[in-house]
Specification:
Blueprint: H1 2-30, H2 39-62, H3 72-91
Helix pairs in contact: 1-2, 1-3, 2-3
Length: 92
């Protein structure tokens, strides 16, 4: 049972890091630090967008407009950690 909990924790931690990488890459592109025409940056951005957008889009629809500030990754990270701790309390 602990192996399943470890795997669950690892997957949630990995997804949180993917969310953070997606947010950082979007900032770097927005401030022209990295060139979105670069093939590697484009592929990385596309991968991160495809992995995170299906989960973030429903959260963005619920949240009010905050004037260009996207807090949906923060809400998702808090939710993921809440679910992780809840599962640990129930099963461990």
């Amino acid at each position: 049972m602990y192996s399943i909990l470890w795997l669950f924790d690892t997957l949630i931690t990995l997804y949180v890091w993917i969310l953070i990488a997606s947010a950082i890459l979007s900032w770097l592109v927005a401030f022209n630090v990295v060139n979105p025409s670069n093939q590697f940056v484009r592929n990385l951005g596309e991968f991160l967008w495809r992995v995170t957008e299906p989960v973030l889009a429903p959260i963005r629809r619920i949240l009010p407009n905050l004037g260009g500030i996207d807090v949906s990754p923060v809400i998702l990270i808090i939710g993921l950690y809440f679910i992780r701790n809840l599962v640990f309390e129930i099963l461990a």
